[in-house]
Specification:
Layout: H1 2-8, E1 13-16, E2 19-21, E3 26-28, H2 31-39, E4 43-46, H3 55-61, E5 64-67, H4 91-107, E6 111-114, H5 116-124, E7 128-130, E8 155-159, H6 164-169, E9 173-176, E10 183-186, E11 191-196, E12 202-207, E13 213-216, H7 228-241
Bound molecules: manganese (II) ion.
Length: 243
């Protein structure tokens, strides 16, 4: 009976972390995340945010974790004080998502982080963040908070050969949209940078040994509808979740 149940499970079950609106007490998600996972062959489910102590059970239940975009991370989680530029903080998400990443790393469960998600992966695994790329002293920082349509690739990325992003883009360059005023300062131990913009901002990372723990600073959930390479990011993640 159990075997029959497993055989019917053709779509890997993907836990998607939601946004949380503190004012209206609502959890929610943009459709592009859920439909992107589904289009890529997965079965997406939105999680609650109250299960930070249940991460072991979550890893038993789900085949992978998608960390969605969202607000800034409490800087104290990467050993800094919160500067005025670190505006929106979601304690519920910080606690839950950090616990998820740490447990997934121990258990080898695939994790894909988008925008805030790449930053959560990095801080949970011991890396740092620029609280604001426009006031951290870096010169010549490009437009990373675009006002162009959300799907529009406002900047190019330079991609490292042999990476997950390289496989998705089938090349060493590509385009990506951009909605972030923060960025990774350096990759956490065990990770490598897989793409940057020409100003040196880190746009993606991946773990060098875990099966799949990777993040992108852009928003492929807003681009896959128009660009196959951004759907391929979801496909490679879902394929990794298939085991
Ligand atoms: Mn960017």
């Amino acid at each position: 009976m159990m075997q029959e149940k497993n055989m019917k499970k053709t779509r890997p079950l993907i836990a998607v972390t939601p946004w949380y609106d503190y004012e209206h007490e609502k959890t929610y998600i943009r459709r592009g995340y859920m439909e992107g996972i589904h289009k890529a062959g997965g079965f997406p489910l939105l999680t609650s945010l109250c299960n930070a102590s249940d991460t072991a059970q979550i890893m038993d239940t789900f085949d992978g974790v998608l960390l969605s975009g969202g607000p800034d991370i409490d800087a104290r989680l990467y050993s800094e004080e919160n500067m005025p530029q670190n505006e929106w903080i979601s304690p519920l998400r910080d606690t839950f998502e950090t616990a998820l990443v740490k447990e997934a790393a121990v258990r080898g469960v695939p994790v894909f982080g988008i925008c805030r998600g790449i930053q959560v992966i990095n801080t949970a695994m011991g890396g740092g963040i620029y609280q604001d790329i426009y006031s951290c002293g870096k010169k010549g920082v490009l437009m990373h908070v675009q006002k162009a349509p959300k799907w529009y690739p406002v900047h190019d990325i330079r991609i490292e050969p042999g990476s997950f992003v390289h496989t998705a883009f089938n090349g060493i360059s590509g385009g990506a949209n951009s909605f972030h005023h923060q960025a990774l300062r350096e990759p956490a131990p065990g990770f490598r940078v897989t793409s940057r913009t020409s100003d040196g901002i880190i746009e993606s990372i991946e773990h060098t040994e875990l099966k799949f723990m990777a993040g992108v600073q852009w928003h492929p959930e807003l681009m896959w509808q128009k660009f196959e390479e951004h759907l391929k990011l979801f496909r490679l993640f879902v394929d990794a979740c298939r085991g």
